[in-house]
Amino acid sequence: MKNKPKIVILGAGYGGMIVAARLQKSTVVKDAEVTLVNKHNYHYQTTWLHEPAAGTMHHDQTRMKIDDVIDTKKINFIKDSVVEIKRDEKKVVLKDSVIDYDYLVLGLGSIPETFGIPGVQEHAFSIRSVNSVRLIKEHIDYQFASYNKQDEKFDETLTFVVAGAGFTGIEFVGEMTDRIPELCEEYDIPREKVRLISVEAAPTALPGFDEELVEYAMNVLESRGVEFMINTPIKEVRENSVVLNDDSEIKTNTIVWTTGVRGNPVVDKSGFDAMRGRIKVTDDLRSPENDDIFVIGDCALIINEETERPYPPTAQIAIQQAYTTANNLKALVEGKKELETFKPDIKGTVASLGGKEAIGVVGKRKIYGNSASVVKKMIDNRYLFLLGGMPLVIKKGKLKMF
Ligand code: FAD
Ligand code: NAD
């Protein structure tokens, strides 16, 4: 009997989980041997991580055990870290073993972009994983807890700097404006002792986004005590300060780095032709160098033909790519040669400002305030629905809408 083809999915993020969930519902799991590899035994929703980072949500709400959603009788699951892909040998080197593939799906997500700025790696926090955000939350709590124990008060203890006012930075700052009053109350600290500073290199927050909505967002956040420093690139991070372009310093024990992302380092380590760790994929989402490797999510780069610039990496695109990839894997396993072309269908962008506020563009419509916040929660719940149906929405969803 002919051996079944081996499909290996690397990464159980938005892209990898949807590919696995689609395949387990199809005939592919009978006709092929499907394996999912992830460094944790749980999946987390990266798009929610600003909330546990600020402490406005428990990190367990953002994650679920992989075998609660994926049927491990149909799909093998390996909990391990991917080290390198040996494309010539069709093998993946994991920390603890080596596995073979016939078809590979590369969906390992991204890491924070540091642009080589000195001190970021050593001294800044990042909003990247359950482990990284749990650490931010604990660190912030500790700053508040230690302040009243200090004989001599240090301003840096209660100064929180967020580098980059892109969507991640803005969403985190928004959550912090909710959390800070609670922490002040809990640790007997007057609100005016606390500084929350959003530092952005570009001439505006959320560069490229609708100007009216950006102004709305900044007004909301400023009214809740956020200080914006716009047009202000950070050039160095030190243990207890950040250094700005004009050499001035902000004293702080807490800098959260949100200046964009680059593709997972496994991409460069494996020698792919890539730009900032992202592989410019073919129309059917394969690596141009290897027709047995699909690349999805933040590791993939696709060009928006209207603007001739890369689409920003988003969960929205990762999920859509996962659907196309699952269909294409099915076609290949069935021996078909014609594969589906990927066409992104961008529904819009909605960003939370904390509390019951958000801003967004849906289709051509601008939305803001509480109604935008409800839409944002519906988007978050929709993903859970796609992954695990109504039971998962009820178990893990954002059910308090208003
Ligand atoms: P991910 O979902 O990040 O998953 C990667 C997976 O790979 C993880 O499970 C990780 O543990 C695993 N992994 C990584 N390295 C290894 C390794 N070496 N070995 C094994 N496993 C590994 N996008 C939107 O569309 N809408 C939003 O509202 C939105 N909000 C966001 C909010 C925040 C705070 C952030 C940080 C991002 C947000 N994004 C949003 C962007 C979105 O999260 C990413 O584009 C999306 O997660 C990419 O999906 P992915 O499958 O490529 O990677
Ligand atoms: P981003 O690229 O969107 O924003 C990074 C910001 O950091 C930019 O405004 C940039 O000018 C600034 N910056 C860069 N270097 C700097 C420096 N040295 N000093 C100060 N500022 C600096 O990246 P992100 O916010 O990390 O988001 C990553 C991806 O995730 C994006 O594609 C984004 O669209 C997506 N995302 C989407 C949502 C949403 O849809 N609600 C939320 C979060 C993230």
Automatic annotation (TrEMBL):
Residues 6-322 form the FAD/NAD(P)-binding domain. Its EC number is 1.6.5.-. Keywords: FAD, Flavoprotein, Oxidoreductase. The keyword Signal does not apply. Pfam families: Pyr_redox_2. It is an enzyme of class 1 (oxidoreductase). It comes from the Bacteria. Transmembrane segments: none annotated. Its cofactor is FAD. The keyword Flavoprotein applies. One of its GO terms (molecular function) is oxidoreductase activity. Belongs to the NADH dehydrogenase family. This is NAD(P)/FAD-dependent oxidoreductase.
